[in-house]
Amino acid sequence: MPEILDVHLLRLGEVRIRPDNVAGTWRPMLLWTATARRWTDWLPVHAVVVRHAEGVLLFDTGQSPDSLTDPGYYPGGLVGWAYRRQAEFRIGPGDRLEAALASVGLTPDDVDTVVVSHLHQDHAGNLPLLPRARVVLAEAECALLETKEPSAHGVLHQHVAPPGTRLEPVTFAPLPDDALAPFTTGHDLYGDGTFVLLPTPGHTPGSSSLLVRRPGAAPLLLVGDLTYDPALMARDVVPGTGARAAQLASTWAVVALQERLPDLRVVAAHDSRAAALV
Where are the alpha helices (DSSP H) in the chain? Predict the structure, then answer.
């Protein structure tokens, strides 16, 4: 059993996005991307590292600093234009993944398992720094890498899955009991309920959330970009990027799980209040 030793929230830079992306909109994504004039305040880019008795698990990896300096990092044409219109990033020296891990006494080589909520570059962009780690993700998310143009789905194949990346796509299977209802399927990483990956599609087809059960502390649900602010979930407010119906269904499932587990803490990747939850 991988007894959890400690959990740390890592701040890996900042992002600002369009307000329509945070609170959703009736307008098509291409329309609000083209017409938006305002940005949100700068929001954190978070990852979570868990040290346990059998190794080190990292949930999400942040945005690569190369994206700020390499003019060819993003594709050209309409797709590249959309990337640049939807988000801007700031990554200081202390925000690099290596520095953030060092701040809690770890190196990239210590990480043996990475779980990615989804393959957008601000969540999977630093995978090339973690060649020793297996990369666990939903099968539906991994399938985006095999589409004709992954970048049109928000996936920069060459940056998030370069040759040598040890991808381990998982197929969600029935859970053994109803303890996590309304979730009926998931993937138990170690077979003991400590780390359970749950399907929360919508932002992307294979978006997933990780349940972390800590001894003597409130359980965590790491939800990636299911929401930018957990307080919005009870109001049926979902981000403007993704499939709205699927996002709503996943949001309702998480809200129902919170009702079942009242001490559950929902940790979103870009929530400025997340540090108080971990």
Answer: 19-23, 29-35, 66-69, 77-86, 97-102, 121-124, 139-142, 157-160, 244-260
- Count CB atoms within 10 A of the CB of residue 261: 16
Q: Are 67 and 144 in contact (CB under 8 A)?
A: no
With contact defined as beta carbons under 8 Å apart, do 115 and 57 qualify?
A: yes
Q: In the numeric block, which tokens belong to residue 269? A: 């990747």
CATH 3.60.15.10 fits 4-276, yes or no: yes
**Using one digit for the tens of pLDDT, what is the confidence trace for 202-221?**
999 999 999 999 999 999 99
Residue recorded with tokens 């587990």 = 261
- Judge whether 209 and 198 are in contact, CB under 8 Å: yes
State residue 128 phi and psi, 5-degree precision.
-60, -20
pLDDT tens, 179-202?
A: 999 999 999 999 999 999 999 999
- CA dist., res. 146 & res. 144, Å (int): 5
Whether the CA torsion 37, 119, 175, 215 is positive or negative: it is negative
CB 21 within 8 A of CB 27: no
Residue type for position 179: A
Dihedral sign from CA coordinates of 124, 128, 129, 132: positive
Question: Any idea which residue has 């940005």 for tokens?
Answer: 39
